[in-house]
Design goal:
Elements lengths: L1 H16 L12 E6 L4 H17 L5 E6 H6 L1 H6 L5 E4 L6 H5 L4 E3 L20 E5 L1 E2 L10 H5 L3 E2 L2 H13 L4 E5 L19 H8 L7 E5 L8 H9 L6 E3 L7 H6 L6 H14 L4 E8 L6 H14 L3 E6 L16 H24 L5 E10 L3 E6 L4 E5 L8 E8 L5 E5 L2
Parallel strand pairs: 1-2, 2-3, 3-4, 5-8, 8-9, 10-11, 11-12, 15-17
Antiparallel strand pairs: 6-7, 13-14, 13-16, 14-15, 16-17
Helix pairs in contact: 8-9, 9-11, 12-13
The structure holds 5'-deoxyadenosine and iron/sulfur cluster.
The site of 5'-deoxyadenosine has 12 residues, from strand 11.
Length: about 425
């Protein structure tokens, strides 16, 4: 979501303010730092990075801090780093032109409604288009700062999303990536008097765009994974068969403390339904270890879900207390125990991942190539999100090729294009 917010700001700055991009920050007239505040570490990093930018920037260059940390620290950023020219919250991106011309502006209103704002066009990649389908989040997971930085959830009208998808496809993109904090809660609330369209219906409408070949989305919430959603996912050939299912914890007790709205059994049941409907699906997840009060038994439940589900990819984090969240003041798990649990989980994940990957040798996938990488390779993804590289150059970008996997690596496989 931050990447798309950056694209939106760049679009406004190019079209309304005449800026162009530079690779070298020492030459920049404006340095924007788009921040995350989901965990504590990036917040610390912000201030050390800011110092570096201020020291080496061109004389007279402006510095703006944007994103979730801007929303949650606001004025304090300017107090701690007085050379910062403006602070722009994650839900105020459309005001970039405004703040640019007001020194020391702080725009961080989390009730500001940008759901129908017509941003100018800018995309980092012509091959794959990120498209926001909602702003904010209505959940109240007790560990999570996002509702405090991005505000209430509002869906973007379906016709605007479809228009944006068509524009991206006309510009050459064959894949779109729908973004929202809870994409499968899409359609519960619009700001104006818009047609009530749910997520499955939105997917059906988008898949009617002829030249659009692939639809991805993130993140769905396990709580909203009803049968209709899973069946539409399985049935619709344009929806890529890769599902992100943020587990957070495998313990029903901890899930309740986290206010996630589902149990261990529901999660496993949804995985089983998904795999029954769609046997080729790859499943990724987010896991937090050492949420306050997590016992050895609770952690064993997370390990149990890992072993039962065998995720294709996990993103795992040590719990980090965040301001203004319900869990903020709860007693933390001993930090050594937390580190041990995280490394146990990551080792287990590597073992599972290596086994899953080893079985892919010799398989053939239709790969959509999107990126030039080092040493004369081009990389792309299969429908079910396996990253594969082949020897090649620009002319492969934006094309689909049948690729046979010839070498297995942990993060990327190597293949050969079939004639
Ligand atoms: N501590 C650790 N991880 C967190 N996440 C969100 N909040 C926290 C926190 N306080 C993780 C969740 C979420 C991912 C984007 O970040 O797993 O799904
Ligand atoms: Fe945070 Fe929960 Fe909303 Fe996800 S669903 S953004 S974890 S509050």
């Amino acid at each position: 979501m931050n990447s798309r917010d950056s694209e939106h700001m760049i679009a406004q700055l190019r079209e309304k303010e005449g800026y162009t991009m530079t690779e070298e920050f020492r030459e920049a007239d404006l340095i924007l730092i788009n921040t995350c505040s989901v965990r504590e570490r990036p917040v610390h990093k912000l201030f050390s990075e800011l110092g570096g930018f201020n020291k080496h920037k061109k004389s007279g260059a402006k510095i703006g801090v944007c994103g979730c940390t801007a929303s949650h620290l606001g004025e304090e950023i300017i107090k701690r780093a007085p050379y910062v020219n403006f602070v722009l919250g994650a839900r105020n991106v459309s005001k970039i032109s405004e703040v640019l011309h007001k020194d020391k502006a702080v725009e961080i209103d989390i009730n500001y409604d940008e759901s129908e704002f017509a941003f100018d066009d800018f995309r980092t990649s012509p091959y794959k288009a990120f498209i926001n389908i909602s702003i904010g989040c209505d959940k109240a997971c007790t560990f999570c700062i996002v509702p405090k930085t991005r505000g209430d959830e509002i869906s973007i009208p379906a016709d605007l999303i479809i228009q944006e998808a068509k524009k991206a496809v006309d510009g050459g993109a064959k894949e779109i990536f729908l973004l929202g904090q809870n994409v499968n809660n899409y359609g519960r609330r619009f700001s104006g008097d818009n047609e009530k369209v749910g997520f499955s219906e939105l997917l059906r409408r988008l898949s009617k765009i002829e030249e659009l070949k692939r639809i991805r989305f993130t993140s769905p919430h396990p709580f909203h994974m009803d049968d209709e959603f899973i069946e539409e996912f399985a049935r619709n050939p344009k929806i890529c068969k890769s599902m992100h299912m943020p587990l957070q914890s495998g313990s029903s007790r901890i899930l309740k403390e986290m206010k996630r709205g589902y149990t261990k059994e529901w999660f496993i049941n949804r995985v089983e339904k998904l795999r029954a409907e769609c046997p080729t699906v790859s499943i990724s997840t987010d896991i937090i270890v050492a949420f306050p009060g997590e016992s050895d038994e609770d952690f064993a439940d997370t390990v149990d879900v890992m072993k039962k589900v065998r995720f294709d990819q996990i993103f795992s984090f040590k719990y980090s207390p965040r301001p203004e969240t319900e869990a903020e003041h709860l007693t933390e798990v001993d930090s050594e125990v937390a580190s041990d649990r995280l490394s146990y989980l990551q080792t287990l994940n590597n073992e599972i991942h290596d086994e899953i990957n080893a079985a892919l040798l010799g398989n053939t996938y239709s790969v959509y190539f999107e990126e030039l990488i080092r040493d004369g390779y081009v990389s792309g993804r299969s429908d079910n999100n396996i990253v594969i590289k082949v020897k090649g150059s620009e002319e492969l970008l934006g094309t689909f090729q049948d690729v046979k996997v010839t070498t297995i690596g942990r993060t990327i496989l190597t293949g050969e294009i079939l004639a």
